[in-house]
Amino acid sequence: DGAIVMTSRVSVELVQKAAKIGCPLLIAVSAPTTLALRTAHEAGITVAALARGNSMTVFTHPQRLQGTQGAET
Fold first, then answer.
1. For residues 40 and 5, what is the distance between their CA atoms, to the nearest angstrom?
2. Whole-model pTM?
3. 44: alpha, beta or left? (left if phi > 0; alpha if psi -120 to 50)
4. What CA–CA distance (Å, rounded) separates 42 from 56?
Protein backbone atom coordinates (compact mmCIF):
# COMPACT_ATOMS: atom_id res chain seq x y z
CA ASP A 1 0.00 0.00 0.00
CA GLY A 2 2.97 2.30 -0.38
CA ALA A 3 6.58 2.79 0.56
CA ILE A 4 8.97 5.41 1.79
CA VAL A 5 12.10 5.64 -0.36
CA MET A 6 15.07 7.58 0.97
CA THR A 7 18.73 8.21 0.47
CA SER A 8 19.54 8.59 4.15
CA ARG A 9 20.39 5.92 6.70
CA VAL A 10 17.37 4.09 8.17
CA SER A 11 17.24 5.23 11.79
CA VAL A 12 14.91 4.22 14.61
CA GLU A 13 13.23 7.63 14.35
CA LEU A 14 12.39 7.08 10.68
CA VAL A 15 10.99 3.62 11.47
CA GLN A 16 8.84 5.11 14.24
CA LYS A 17 7.50 7.77 11.86
CA ALA A 18 6.72 5.12 9.23
CA ALA A 19 4.88 3.06 11.85
CA LYS A 20 2.90 6.11 12.96
CA ILE A 21 1.56 6.72 9.44
CA GLY A 22 1.06 3.02 8.73
CA CYS A 23 3.69 2.66 6.01
CA PRO A 24 4.62 -1.02 5.58
CA LEU A 25 7.89 -0.60 3.62
CA LEU A 26 11.06 1.47 3.94
CA ILE A 27 13.59 1.42 1.10
CA ALA A 28 16.97 3.10 1.48
CA VAL A 29 20.29 3.42 -0.26
CA SER A 30 22.23 3.36 3.01
CA ALA A 31 22.41 0.64 5.66
CA PRO A 32 19.97 0.60 8.58
CA THR A 33 20.99 0.80 12.22
CA THR A 34 20.59 -2.26 14.45
CA LEU A 35 18.02 -0.49 16.62
CA ALA A 36 16.05 0.54 13.51
CA LEU A 37 15.91 -3.10 12.37
CA ARG A 38 14.77 -4.28 15.80
CA THR A 39 12.04 -1.61 15.88
CA ALA A 40 10.95 -2.36 12.29
CA HIS A 41 10.73 -6.07 13.04
CA GLU A 42 8.53 -5.44 16.08
CA ALA A 43 6.35 -2.98 14.12
CA GLY A 44 5.91 -5.33 11.14
CA ILE A 45 7.70 -2.99 8.74
CA THR A 46 9.78 -4.33 5.87
CA VAL A 47 13.19 -2.66 5.60
CA ALA A 48 15.02 -3.00 2.29
CA ALA A 49 18.32 -1.18 2.07
CA LEU A 50 21.60 -1.02 0.21
CA ALA A 51 19.45 -0.48 -2.87
CA ARG A 52 21.60 -0.32 -5.98
CA GLY A 53 20.30 -0.66 -9.51
CA ASN A 54 18.02 -3.69 -9.58
CA SER A 55 19.10 -5.16 -6.25
CA MET A 56 18.61 -4.54 -2.55
CA THR A 57 18.98 -6.40 0.71
CA VAL A 58 15.78 -7.11 2.62
CA PHE A 59 16.46 -7.03 6.36
CA THR A 60 13.01 -7.50 7.92
CA HIS A 61 9.77 -9.21 6.87
CA PRO A 62 10.98 -10.39 3.43
CA GLN A 63 7.70 -12.23 2.82
CA ARG A 64 6.17 -8.87 1.88
CA LEU A 65 8.46 -8.75 -1.17
CA GLN A 66 8.42 -12.39 -2.24
CA GLY A 67 8.42 -12.66 -5.98
CA THR A 68 9.97 -9.22 -6.42
CA GLN A 69 12.77 -9.30 -8.97
CA GLY A 70 16.09 -8.05 -7.68
CA ALA A 71 15.34 -8.51 -3.98
CA GLU A 72 17.91 -10.35 -1.92
CA THR A 73 17.27 -11.75 1.55
1. 15
2. 0.84
3. left
4. 21
